[in-house]
Every structure is written in structure tokens, then in C-alpha cells.
Write a structure and sequence with these properties.
Elements lengths: L3 H11 L3 H22 L4 H13 L1 H13 L1 H4 L6
Amino acid sequence: MMSPQVLELDRAIRALSIEEQKWLLDRINKQIRNFTDTDKFANESYIEAQIKEMACDPDIQAEIAAINQEFAVTEMDGLSD
């Protein structure tokens, strides 16, 4: 059984023009896609695939090399693990 709020929304939607209904449907679809897209970050295999893709990216590899070079001097400070 639908809640009274959903039934009220249904009545209000039926009162809208077709153009307004299409606009509302598009907004709802975007919201659902956005929610689904953010939910994928909870998926461990998705995250792992993204990390592998980043590791192969030449721009990221260049940035990591630059960071390593920048901190090379501090690695020689005598501290060990």
C-alpha cells in the first residue's frame, strides 16, 4: 500500500501538463542515476578497477614520479620504519 504522500504526489502529477511531467521525470531519472553513481564507490571491485586504471595513467605516473623526487631528500633523513 502506498503512503498518503505518494498518493498525493500521484494526484498532483496527473494535474501537470505533459511537458511538466516530462521535466519532472527527467529530474527524477537524473537523481536516481546520480544516487546509483555514488553508490558504486561502495563497490570494492569498482574501486579496485579504478585504482588499476589510475596506476596505468601516464599523467598520474608522472605526478607520482614528481612527488617521489620532491621528497627524495627527506627520505635520506636517517629515519627508518
